[in-house]
Amino acid sequence: MKTIADLKVKIFADGADKAGMLEMYAKPYIAGFTTNPTLMRKAGIVDFEAFARDISRSIPDRPLSVEVFADEFEEMERQAERIAKWGEHIYVKIPVTNTRGESSAPLVRRLAAKRIKLNVTALMTLDQVRETAAALEGGASSYVSVFAGRIADTGRDPLPMMAEAVKILAPFENLELIWASPRELLNIFHADSVGVHIITVTNDVLAKLPLVGKDLLEYSLDTVKMFHTDAAKAGFSIETTREFSA
Questions:
Q1: What is the pTM of this model?
Q2: What end-to-end distance do the CA atoms of the chain give, in Å?
Q3: Which of 9, 28, 144, 198 is positioned for an S-S bond with 178, CB 3.0–4.6 A?
């Protein structure tokens, strides 16, 4: 099987915990970083701008995606223009729609015309991929982020859709496809197998990277030892003299 070094897909760390992000920054195989308001909230971030500016200075030489949090397109545009000024490596994340389901394509088109690097996020259909690609055409380097993990959560196989998304983006030299919201480490290999450019991965999944290629008999034995050790630590016992009646 392939090793991590053999993969063509780029791995971006997904999170909002500064210590965890800097830990991943020290890994040469982490090619970039993404975050979002939900991850920031989980990490206890209360000052959006202070955190974003700080992490952009701490990680100055790899792509870093920072998401707007407004729901009105006019305010999204204002936030995007401000965020873009925080560093040449910043990609501004724009949701594919607002909360009313209205397409952000017109906004994306305006921002692309201003040469702002974008990461259009939360896509889940091929029609959204086509519309987003058209809006980004001719702009700066940008990402199209398809939430393959959430697609899989609905019982659909995301691989055929992601393979088709790769084909849709092929004519656009400025665009890269992101496999977002992976659920397991195997998704990295799935993304690589269909030619996806980037996969965003949380630290809990990245922690499993040392297992890649591990001997399965050895892993089986490790698992048996884990069960035995945990049972011993819990003090479990069965009294052989106790009689049970129905």
A1: 0.93
A2: 52
A3: 198
Residues 143-152 pLDDT 10s: 999 999 999 9
Domain of 202, in residue numbers: 4-211
Whose structure tokens read 């659920």? 183
The first and second tokens of residue 11, run together, are: 């791995």
Beta strands in the chain (DSSP E): 10-14, 30-34, 64-67, 90-95, 118-123, 142-146, 175-179, 198-202
So what's the pLDDT on residue 57?
97
Number of structural domains (the chain) is 1
Residue 99: what pLDDT? 98
89 exposed, middle or buried (CB, 10 Å; 0-12, 13-18, 19+)?
middle
CATH of the domain at 157: 3.20.20.70
- Is 231 within a domain? no
CB 120 within 8 A of CB 91: no
Q: 235: helix, coil or strand? A: coil
Q: Which whole-number Å values give the CA distances from 67 to 51, 120, 128, in the listed order?
A: 12, 9, 18
Q: pLDDT tens, 198-236?
A: 999 999 999 999 999 999 999 999 999 999 999 999 999
177: number of Cβ within 10 Å: 29
| Low-confidence spans in the chain with pLDDT less than 50 | none
